[in-house]
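Re: that chain you flagged

S.,

Sorry for the slow reply, it's been a week of failed gels. I finally had a moment to sit down with the sequence you sent. For the record, here it is as I used it:
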Amino acid sequence: MLSSPAEQHALRATTDLESALTAVEAQLAALGDALKAQDPDATEAASTGLHRALAVAVDRSTNAARNGGMPPALRRRLALAGASVAAQREAVARAATSLDRAIEILLPDAAPARSPVYGAQGNPWRSSTSGVAEA
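Prediction finished late last night. Pasting the structure tokens below so you have them in one place:
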């Protein structure tokens, strides 16, 4: 049985961290499902929920670290959750890049001009009347 207040506080911090990690894992699963379903409203709701759950988990992990450390099992779960967040962020970035490329191909006038596109006539932004090479 826990007798000292310090032990009770450490147990409470660990329990709080456990519940925060469970919430992060649930939000990660919800975000993954929303992304697979390509549901923008569910994706927005899940990402907002994940952001809040991560903020709580970071606060609770900091509190647990100050008060006696974090059990190895929770440390592993926190690391896995962080890796999952990074993987989903990368997947969303790749999907956004792919979508941007498709939009540029389908609607070239709507896409912002990042660099000149070369065609059969060369660079369309370059003057064709000058015989001087441009840098």
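What I noticed first: The mean pLDDT is 80.

Talk soon,
D.
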